[in-house]
Amino acid sequence: MDQSVAIQETLGREENCIIAAQCDILLDDFSESRLLGLVESAKEHAIFIYTHRRMAITAEDVSLEDIMPISLDFSVVEDACRSPTQVPKFEWLNKYKKAIKGQAAVKQAGAPLEAFSDPINQHQKIEKPSEKKGSLEKAKNSNSVAQKSKGNPSQDNQSISSREERDDLVRSSSHTASNKAQILAMPQFGLRDNLIRCELLKSEDLYTYLENFSFFLGTYNVNGQNPKESLRPWLSCTLKPPDLYCVGFQELDLSKEAFFFNDTPKEQEWTKAVSEALHADAQYALVRLIRLVGIMLIFYVKKEHAEFISDVEAETVGTGIMGRMGNKGAVAIRFRFHNSDICVVNSHLAAHVEEYERRNQDFKDICSRLQFRQLDPTQPPLTIMKHNVVLWIGDLNYRISDLDVESVKDLITKKDFETLHSYDQLKRQIDEEAVFVGFAEGEIDFQPTYKYDTGSDQWDTSEKCRIPAWCDRILWKGKNIQQEHYQSHMDVRASDHKPVSSLLIIGIKRVNSEAYKKTFEEIVRNIDKMENECIPSLSLSEREFHFKDVKYMQHQAERLSLFNDGQVPCQFEFIQKPNESTYSKPWLTANPSKGFIPQGGSTVIELEVFVNRFTAPDLNCGKQEIEDILVLHLERGKDYFISVTGNYMPSCYGTSIYSLCHMREPIQDMPKETLLELAEKSPKDDTATTEKPLDIPKELWMMVDHLFRNALNQEDLFQQPGLRTEFAEIRDCLDSGMPDSLPGSNHSVAEALLLFLDALPEPVIPYAFYQQCLECCANAGQCEKVISMLPLCHKNVFNYLAAFLRELLKNSASNRLDVAILATIFASLLLRSSKKQDFAEKTKTQEFFQHFLTQHSS
After folding, report:
1. b/e map of 538-561 (b: 16 or more CB within 10 Å)?
2. Which residues contact 805 (CB under 8 A, 6 or more apart)?
3. Cα angle: 643, vertex 644, 648; to 5 degrees
4. Phi and psi for 519 in degrees, rounded to 5?
5. What domains, with CATH codes, occur in the chain?
6. Do the beta carbons of residue 584 and residue 630 sit within 8 Å?
7. What HEC string does 520-559 produce?
8. Using alpha carbons only, what angle is made at residue 784 by residues 782 and 790, rounded to the nearest 5 degrees?
9. Which band of pLDDT confidence, cut at 50, 70 and 90, is reported for residue 239?
10. Which site in 432, 519, 759, 779 is 20 to 30 Å from 218, CA atoms measured?
11. Rounded Cα–Cα distance for residues 498 and 250 (Å)
């Protein structure tokens, strides 16, 4: 949420808080949260440092602790050539000096962190009498810290309001005088903390109770429209104000700028429309907003609940073309509300009636790739499913199958939604356990939400005459959840979709502070009884793993089971071998790579092998093999050695243009010695073989020829992803033989072509020519001159691809491609930098390539 509002309330009339940011100040063995505000007054700036509670809503929630004036040598100046005309005096800060208790004079800019770390330490250790009201009683032996709370003590105040206080209890327990289990007190590994957290989690029922809160979930595909009408019929449809709002949008902006640069003014427009339409009988705080191209999720909470929201993280994942483009994918927010972990996902899955398998794949990709970092860096990232409650909203795009448009409309007219729902693709896929396993969805007793003529309640009258479908859905997973309503909102007509809402009543776990303290102290006492001489021990299910027929971009995994057969809990971690920077080769991952196992407990580690464009080149030519030794280290125990081997199937993906032009046979039929010899040759060396090389790689020709013959009129070519299973078939055909035609859809072949170009170790325009291309991007003649200087095989590939793309543009009326789209997609593949590109460089590469799309080059 925007916490600058709270800071602004503490300032004078002539002072303005430009931006606020929450940060952590690192101290000796822990960190403390602070709220920083960049404050401006009379063209002078200073950083105001506040202590605060978790969510700062008003001035009452923050306390000014320190001020750091931004002097001249501290400033960030846009125009480095302009000299300052006046030295800042910061006289406006004088009135704040008296307000900063416990501090000396206002500190000068650039003071080291240590200069104000001591007062912060004092602040943490010293509790003012006024802060003791409603706080936890001090635990014996300083095993706990006091809870600060505002207002009169009540049943609500008996709960611990944030995770920080529980962490403080855990942290301070390591200083107990009676602690004899020294093996658990190693701060660098936090073994004791992990053990206490684990035991607290197992005993959670002893100190928590359920309290119901209302969650309003809404989803709306706005089809690139502006907010032309009030959203109150949708967002204020409940009699009582909800406790939390999670509002999702799709297709927020359909412009090319939004698609390629993820920038849109419509974010602010729709956010304003939402804030104005929230229930009028309550005040809400914006906690988090996250957007990926046109997919946006906004999370609001009643202001009185804001202090109980913690551990907020947001992530995105694109499932569009090449698994990166964000026109399809998901955004998600995870947070802790009281003692419950909640994840909200807003997704936009693949379109078109026949693409239900692609939608299934999108769902699985989102679940596996979307991960949240944890506050504790020793813990592995959290996936979507590792939450108490998962709320999933969005345009899931599942359609009605096996019925024509008239039959569907007839069932809608009769309001026979039960029969119509039996033809719903999502219902069928859930029944087959293909997607959303363990999720629930309320009964659908409203008409399909897609597709309408924009601005009306009339079904699609366009030439395509789309079959009505329930594209927009809301599902959930978790315990103690009841749905109060599930409905569409016909009164909102800005889009070709209708918005959908659901009100869920969710039982949230709250903490009883007295019961928590007793449980905590009992756990600490039990830990103290552990004897020092107990050595951790593990038994492993296997010590050797072999991965058979590893292929490019084909995930393989084996399971390693660990069982704690020792007398004490243990902490494990895969560690680096001597002279190596990581614990494994880059194609190998252990998930999780470190963790904690209680006594008698077990865990499963997935050893995952995945060869991508970075690791494929050396594996293709035989410079590297699928071979590694993992060292599993047991803290205060011994090391275990795990052997990982496999056989890799060479692929044209990740092999150089030069090498492929010198292969007349499929790469998997080539001797290893030949592959290595070709990899070590240079394109400048024309004596590599006595046989004349191919003009272009045969694999590239197969894909382009397939598209030329079958896809010149294909709508959304190079913009809609294919199926991963079909990509695997295409890859195998190219690597093992050259059939008359490639398998898979046009979209799968198009994506396979893009992935091929992306995987080239040296791009079509070699790195050595990159800077020259940028410098001449505005001059078409100079651009052609650069291409004429490329190595012959690279020049042939470039001209061949440019000619093919010009043919596509001749059919733009049917395939909906234009120069800007093709230049953006292909320039990033053909003209790559060995370093990260900035926005200006990306624009220049597109300008360079556009010359070859708008005119014939020599």
Report:
1. beeeeeebebeebbbbbebeeebe
2. 822, 826, 853
3. 150
4. -65, -45
5. 3-101 (2.30.29.110), 212-510 (3.60.10.10), 544-648 (2.60.40.10), 699-854 (1.10.555.10)
6. yes
7. HHHHHHHHHCCCCCCCCCEEECCCEEEEEEECECCCEEEE
8. 110
9. very high
10. 432
11. 12
Backbone angles phi, psi at 76, to 5 degrees: -105, 110
Q: Quick one: CA torsion of 646, 652, 657, 659, rounded to 10 degrees?
A: 60
Instruction: Give residue 149's identity as a one-letter amino acid code.
Output: S
Q: Which two tokens stand for residue 380?
A: 């592995």
List the beta bridge partners of residue 38: 19, 47
- Judge contact between 729 and 749, C-beta under 8 A: no
In the prediction, which pLDDT does 835 show?
Answer: 86
pLDDT at position 685: 62
- Give Rg (Cα) of the chain: 31
Residue that wins the pLDDT comparison between 85 and 663: 663
- 726/755 Cα distance (integer angstroms): 13
Give the sign of the dihedral formed by CA 409, CA 412, CA 414, CA 418: positive
The answer to whether the CB of 300 falls within 8 A of the CB of 284 is yes
Residue at token pair 């009306």: 456
Each residue's pLDDT tens digit, 271-317:
999 999 999 999 999 999 999 989 999 999 999 999 999 999 999 99
Structure tokens given for 767? 């790195």
Query: Residue 459 and residue 409: Cα distance in Å, rounded?
Result: 9
Q: Note the Cα 734 to chain centre separation in Å.
A: 33
Structure tokens belonging to residue 805 = 């793309």
Distance, in Å, from the CA atom of 205 to the CA atom of 221, rounded to the nearest integer, reads 41
Give the end-to-end CA distance of the chain in Å, rounded to a whole number: 56
**pLDDT in the model for residue 755:** 95
